[in-house]
Amino acid sequence: MKIALVTATPFELGPLLKELGIVVLKEGEVVRATYNSHELYFICCGVGLVKTAFHLGKLLSEIKPDLALQAGVAGSFLSDFKIGDVVCAATERIYDLGAEDHENFLSLDEMNLGSQQIQSSKL
Q: How far apart are the C-alpha atoms of 72 and 14, rounded to whole Å?
């Protein structure tokens, strides 16, 4: 099975990378490893929606994994979760998507251009 493991920063996959003997994971670089006959592909996309979309899109088109997993804080800093917890987001909010009018930040909602909330599909 081909599994893509995606992260914004290498620190978010640190313990797993160390366990597999992967020393360096640079932004945009794909590192391949094997574990129990599975092909693992690690990629550090960098922080933000645009970098993730670019690097993940490239990876998915090149290796066509059977499964892709995002690892890390995913922009959330809620204290409800402990390191190692597995969560599935039901909704997302993109707070930095909008425009400025020289004085204020204007959200998509305020400009009537759509919603900053994205409803995730059910697994």
A: 10
Q: Decide if 22 contacts 42 (C-beta within 8 A).
A: yes
Task: List the alpha helices (DSSP H) in 20-104.
Answer: 49-63
Enumerate residues 6+ apart whose C-beta is below 8 A from 90.
119, 120
Of 71, 77, 65, which is closest to residue 38 (Cα–Cα)?
Answer: 65
Phi, psi dihedrals of residue 117, rounded to the nearest 5° = -90, 135
Residue with tokens 């909008």: 98
Is the CB of residue 2 less than 8 Å from the CB of residue 41? Answer: yes
> Do the strands 2-7 and 38-44 form a parallel or antiparallel pair, or are they unpaired?
parallel
Look up residue 33 and give its amino acid. Answer: A
Tokens standing for 99?
């425009």
pLDDT in tens, the chain (123 residues): 999 999 888 888 888 888 888 877 788 888 888 889 999 999 988 888 888 889 989 999 999 999 998 888 766 777 787 777 787 777 777 777 788 888 888 888 888 887 766 665 554
